[in-house]
Amino acid sequence: MASSKTIFEIEAYILSIDMGTTSMKAAVFDQKGNNLVSSVVEYTLLTPDTNMVEVPCEVYMHSIKKCMEIISEQKLVDMQQIMVIGFSVQGETICTLDKDGKPLKNAIVWMDNRAGKQAETLRNYFGDELCYQVTGQVSFEACWPAAKILWIRENEPEVFKKIKHILLLEDYIIYQLTGQFVTEGSLLTSTEYWDIRTKSYWKEMLDFLGIEMEQLPNILEPGEIVGTILPDMAEWLGGSKNAKVCTGCLDQAAAAIGVGNIHNGMLSENIGAALAICVPVSELKYDPHRQMPVHYFGIPDTYMMHSFTTGGMCFRWFRDNFCSAELHVQEMTELDAYDLMDREAELVDPGSNGLITLPHLQGSMAPDVNLDAKCVFYGATLKHKKAHFIRSIMESLGYIICRNLETVEKMGLDIGEIRTMGGGSKSDLWNQIKADIIGKPLYLTSASQDVACLGAAIIAGRAAGFFDSIDSAVKSMVHVRKVYEPNMENHEVYLKQYKKYKALFEMLTPLFKMDSGKE
Q1: Are residues 109 and 53 in contact, defined by beta-carbon separation less than 8 angstroms?
Q2: 361 - beta bridge partners?
Q3: Which end of the chain has fewer beta carbons closer than 10 Å to its terminal beta carbon, N or C?
Q4: Are 365 and 309 in contact (CB under 8 A)?
C-alpha cells in the first residue's frame, strides 16, 4: 500500500536565518521542530566615530553564504530539500541603495546613536505623545531609523540625493535573494515612519524627513511568500532553486513565537545581554502611562507589548570582575563558571538576606525609562558573602520581569503563563527564582536557546503551506520540557523585597540625575 504521506511531510526542510548584531546564524529544521544542522558566522562592527556603529551591507550576504557552506560541509541534510527560507532579524538597522540597487554607504546598525540631535528635532516638532499614538514607540530616539535618515540628509547631502531605496536589514536580504523590494510590520514598527494604526507609512513624517513613499519597500505581512529565490543566488548559496523566500519578523517576536508565546494571557522573557519582555495581544492596545512600547507582532493582525533593558550583562560583569576563582576552575576543567556561581547562590536563602541589586549598568529602559540609572547594591552587611551578591543579581532580573508584568496587568492584560528563553533559562535555580518572584508557573521549552531561529522556521513553515496555521505549527514544533511551579512561601519573601526594589529605584532617581550633571 502506498504511503499517505506527501513528499513535503517526508522531505521538505525549512532554512531559518537569524540576523544578529554581531553574528549570522542559519539552521535547518524539519516540520517537527528538530534542528537538523546549524552554523554561526561572526562579523565585526565598525565604529568610525563616537556613537557610530556600522557594517558594510555586503558582509551580511557573505555571512549567509559562509553559513550555508558550513551547513553543506556537514552533510547532515540534502540542501536541495530546503523548500522555504525564513528570517529573524535585528530591528532598526538600515541600508540605503542607489538607483542600481547598490549600497551607498555602510548599514547603520540599530545601536548607532549618532542621530541624537535629529531625534530631539523630531521630538520638538511632533512630540513624544503623538509618536506613541502613531508608531507605538514611547519616544523619539537616536537609534530609530527616522532620526538616522534625517542625520544622513543633514550631514551627507550628496548621499541623501542619490538614495533610491531605504531598506531595513531584512528587506535588503530579501532583495538580494529575490530582486523584490518588500518589508513587513514587525520591523517597520520601530522606524517611526510607519503608522501602526493603519499599517501604512506615516506621510507627515516622510514629508518632514524629505523622502517619498516610492523610496520605501512594499508592505507585506510577516510570514508572507515573496517569491522563489533567484536562480543565480540559489547557485551561489548552494541551495535549491525551488526554495521560496518569505518575510520574517523582528528577532524578539520570532523568539516569542519560538517558545509558543502566541496567545493573549502569555508573557515570554529572554535573559541574554539584555532582558526582553514580549506580551502578544490580539488588538492594538496602548499603555495609558506611556511606559510600555507596542509593536506589530510576527503574526498578521496581532500586536506585542515589548520592552527591553540591560539583563544578563550585569551577571556577566560580576563574573568577569569578581569571580576569578570560578573562571580559573573553568579554564582548568570542563566546569562552567556560571554553573559554579549557581551552586554558590543556591546555598543562599531567598531574598539574599536583605541584599537588593539595581542591575542598571547602562541605564534602565521600559517600563522605568531612566538612561541615568546606575547599578546599586543595597543592604550589604558583614554577614553577606559573594554568594549573596550572585543570588541578588539573579533576583533583580526577576524583579524587572515582575515590574513589566505589573505594568501590562495594569493595562487590563491578565497574564497566566510565563515562558522563558535565552542564556538565563539554562539555570534551573534562576528559573525557579523567577517563578517564585512572579508567583506564576514558568515554562521551559526544548529549544530555549534556538528560539529565534525556530520562530522564523514556524512562520516560514506556515507560509509554505506545511501547516494550516501558526497554532498548528507551534503544536508540531514547540515542545515544553519543564514547568517550574512557584513556591508561594518564597513568593511572600520576594514580594517584600520587590517593594523595596521599587522604592529604592524611585528614591535614587534624583541622585542618578544629579550624577549625570542634569541637576
Answers
A1: yes
A2: 363
A3: N
A4: yes
Helix (H) or strand (E) holding 476: helix 470-477
Task: Count the Cβ atoms, other than its own, within 10 Å of residue 287.
Answer: 20
CA distance 500 to 437: 13
Confirm if 152 and 159 have CB atoms less than 8 A apart: yes
Query: In this predicted model, what pLDDT tens digit does every residue of 134-179 receive, in sequence order?
Result: 999 999 999 999 999 999 999 999 999 999 999 999 999 999 999 9
Instruction: Output the DSSP codes for 436-470.
Output: HHHTS-EEEETTTTSHHHHHHHHHHHHHTTSSSSH
- The distance in angstroms from the start CA to the end CA of the chain is 81
Question: 513, 372 in Cβ contact below 8 A?
Answer: yes
* CB-side neighbour CA atoms (13 Å) of 1: 3
- Identity of the residue numbered 345: A
How far apart are alpha carbons 85 and 205 in whole angstroms? 33
Q: 393-422: per-residue pLDDT in tens?
A: 999 999 999 999 999 999 999 999 999 998
Q: For residue 392, what are the CA distances in angstroms to 261, 274, 314, 318?
A: 28, 17, 11, 11
**Of residues 485, 487, 467, the one with CA closest to residue 477:** 467
Half-sphere exposure of 229 (CA within 13 A, CB side): 24
Q: Which residues pair with 418 in a beta bridge?
A: 267, 442
- What does the block give as the cell for 107? 548599514
- Cell, residue 442: 514558568
Q: Residue 13 in contact with residue 81, Cβ under 8 Å?
A: yes
HSE-up (13 A, CA, CB side) for residue 269: 30
> DSSP for 413-428?
----EEEEESGGGG-H
Q: Which residue has the cell 495581544?
A: 281
The phi and psi torsions of 489 (rounded to 5 degrees) equal -65, -45
The conformation of residue 283, written as its DSSP 8-state character, comes to S
C-alpha cell at 39: 552554523
DSSP 91-142: SS-EEEE-TTS-BSS-EE-TT--TTHHHHHHHHHHH-HHHHHHHHS-SS--T
CA distance 21 to 24: 8
φ, ψ for residue 199, nearest 5 deg: 55, 45
